Amino acid sequence: MSTRGSSILNQLLLLHTGRTRLWTALAVLAAGTFLLLLSVLAWSDFDLLIKGGEGSGTESYIVIGKQITERNMGTASTNAFSASEISEVRHAPQVLDAGEITPALFPVYAEVGGQLPLQTELPLASVPDRFLDAVPPDWNWQPGNPNLPVVLAARFLDIYNYVFAPGQGLPQLSRGSVQAIGMRMKVGSDPSVQVFSAHISGFSDRVGSVLVPQSFITYGNSRFAASAGPVRVMQLILRVADPSDPQFVTWLQQHGYTTEPQGLQWSRMRAIVQSVAAATGGLAVLLMVAGALIFMLFIELSVTRSRSSLVLLHQLGYSRRYLVRYMMRRFLPRVAGSLLLALAGTVFVQVVVSSRLAAAQLHLPALPGAVVWAAFVLCSVLVSAAVYRAIVRSVAAAEA
Amino acid sequence: MRGLVPAHLVQQLAGRPSQVWNTEVTLPSGACVFVQAPSGRGKTTLIHMLYGLRTGYTGSISFGDTKMEQLSDDQLSALRAKELSVIFQDMRLFPSLTAFENIEVKRALTNSVTAEEVQAWLAQLGIADKAQSMAATLSYGEQQRVAIIRALVQPFAWLLMDEPFSHLDAANRQLAIDLIKSVAQRRNAGLFLTDLDANNYFPYTHTFLM
User: Fold this and answer.
1) Across residues A129-151, what is the average pLDDT?
2) Contact across the interface for B78 and A5, Cβ inside 8 Å
3) Residues facing residue A112 across a β-bridge
4) How far is B130 from B142, CA to CA, in rounded Å?
5) I need a labelling partner for B131 at 20 to 30 A (CA). Which of A114, B63, B176, B187 fits?
C-alpha cells in the first residue's frame, strides 16, 4: 500500500479518537508495567543482597542445639541428639553438611604463666576439621604428643579484651600476641592427671567453644572421662546453603532447635521484604491489568467510532486480516513505547540504587537481573496478545 | 446462480414468475447482462448476494469453480479486490474523505491504475474540479460519478452495477457509459447491470426480468 493510501486509512480508522485518551491509556499502561518491574527488581535485588551478605557466597555455618526448657532441663539424655535425629538434620532444607560438636567429658584446667597470671577451667570440644574457619598448619595431635594446638572462639578474646582485662588491670592482647603465649593444660583429675603444653593456633567465629583436634577429645574421653558411657552430642554445627530460607527457619522451629539469632536475622528481613514486594507486586499487577484494560477499551472505542469506515473498507476488498494487521502496526509501536519506557525507568532505578548501595559496601549489578528482563518479556507478550485480541474482536464486531 | 431465494423475500416471491429467482442461470465470462425489475423485487439484494455482502438465502452462487458461500474472509476480500467490482446504488463513499481520496482508497489495494489515469477519468466525467472536495459536499450526481470511477480502479472480471446512473442526466450518463465500456473492454470483463426500466446503455447479451 502506498504512503498516501496508508495515510487515508489512518485518517479513516485512527483519527476519530482523542489524543488525550490515547496518551492517558498509554501512561497508565507504562505506570503499571513500571511498578510491576520495580517490585520484581526489589525482590531480585534483595535476594542478591542477602546471598552476598554472608560474605562467601550463600553458604553459612550455624550451631544448633535443643532448646532447654523448664520441662527438659536436667535431662541431658533427651537434650542430646540421637543418631536418627542427626541423620534427619543432614536432610533438612538448605542443610549441606552437619558435624557433631563433641564435648570433653573430663576436666581441663589451664594456667597461663608470665605476665598473665590466668588460671581457668576450659570447656574443650572438637568438631570435624572441615567445619573449622581455617585449619591451622599444626592442627594435629597424636597420643604421646605433649604439645596441644587450640582454636579459641573469637568472642572469648573479645570478652577478655573488652570486659576482663580492663577490670583486672591486665594488658589487652591482639590475636597474634595471644598465639605466642603458651599455656599449661592440666587434663583429668587425681590420680589420673596429664599435663600438656598448649598454644592457641587459631580463632573461630563459628563455634563458641575452645576447640582441640578430634583425636585429643577421643583420647581424653576414653582416658580421663569421669563416668563411662557414650558421648552425648548436645550441639551440631551445620553448613547451610541459605540460612535465611523461611523453610529452614520453620524447620528449626518445628523441631525445637535453637541457634544464635544473628544467623537468622536475614530471614526476618527477607520475610518482610518479600511480603512488601508481594504486596507491591499485587498492586502493580492490578495497575498493569487496569492499564491494559483501559488501552483495550480505548482500542474498542476507536474501532467503534470508525465502525462505518471499517465496514466499508471491508466491502471494498480490505480483508479483516489486513485491517487487524494495519491497526496492530499502528497500536503496537505505541504499546511498545510504553513498555520500553517502564523498562527504562526500571533500569534507571537499578543504576541509581546500585551506585548508592555501593557506598554502603552493598554490591548490586548495575543492570537489572535476568528475572526482571524475563518479567518484561512476559509483560510484553501478554499485553501484545491482549491488544491483538481486542483489535480482532473489535474488527469482527464492527461487521456484525 | 442456482435456485437463489433470499430469505427475506420468500413470501413476496412466492407464486410470482421470475427469470432470476429460484432458477438456474449460467453466464459466460465477458457477458453483458441486464436485469430489469420494478422497485421491491430484490435488485439490490441480488447485487449484494453476488458481491458476497448478503448471506441469508437458499441456493448457491458460483464464480467458475468457486462457490461464494464457501469463501473465507481472505478469499472473499481477494475476490472483491481483483475479480469483482461494484457500483452501489447508494454510492457508499467515505463522507470524510475527498473525491480523490475515496478513489485512492480502492486504487491503493492493487495499484492497477495510475493516479494520472484517475485524474483523466475525473476530467472525462466532468468532475476534475471536485477531486479535492469532501464527498459529503458533493451532489448525488457527482458522488455517483466518483463511485463509478472507484469501481474501475481495480482489476475485475465482472462489474456489478446497481442502478448506476440513477442520478445522472443523459449527457453525463453517456460519458459514464463510454468510460465503463472502454475499461471493461480493456479488461475483457463482464458487465452486470440492474435497473428499473428497459434501456440500451450497453450491448446486452443476456436480459432477465425479475
Assistant:
1) 89
2) no
3) A118, A183
4) 8
5) B187
**Which residues of chain B neighbour A5 with C-beta distances below 8 Å?**
104-105, 107-109
Helix (H) / strand (E) containing B179: helix B170-187
Q: Inter-chain contact A12–B74, Cβ cutoff 8 Å?
A: no
Query: Quick check: A319 and B77 CB within 8 A?
Result: yes
Burial class of residue B134, CB neighbours in 10 A (0-12, 13-18, 19+): middle
Residue range A229-286, pLDDT digits in tens? 777 888 899 888 877 777 888 888 888 888 876 556 666 676 777 777 777 778 777 8
Helix (H) or strand (E) run with residue A290 in it? helix A265-305
Alpha carbons B147 and A253: distance in angstroms, whole number = 84
Distance CA B138, CA B147 (A): 12
Angular region, A194: left φ>0, alpha ψ -120 to 50, beta rest: beta
Residues of B with CB under 8 A from a CB of A: 51, 53, 73-74, 76-78, 80-82, 92, 94, 96-97, 101, 104-109, 111, 154
Asked if the Cβ–Cβ distance from B106 to A316 is below 8 Å, we say yes
Alpha-carbon distance A244 to A235, whole Å? 20
pTM, rounded to two decimals: 0.64
Residues in chain A: 400
C-beta of residue B155 within 8 angstroms of C-beta of residue B110: yes
Q: In B, which residues are within 8 Å of A317 by CB distance?
A: 77-78, 80-82, 106, 109, 154
Cβ of B105 within 8 Å of Cβ of A321? The answer is: no
End-to-end CA, chain A: 26
Give the mean pLDDT of chain A: 83
State the pairing for strand pair B32-36/B206-209. Answer: parallel
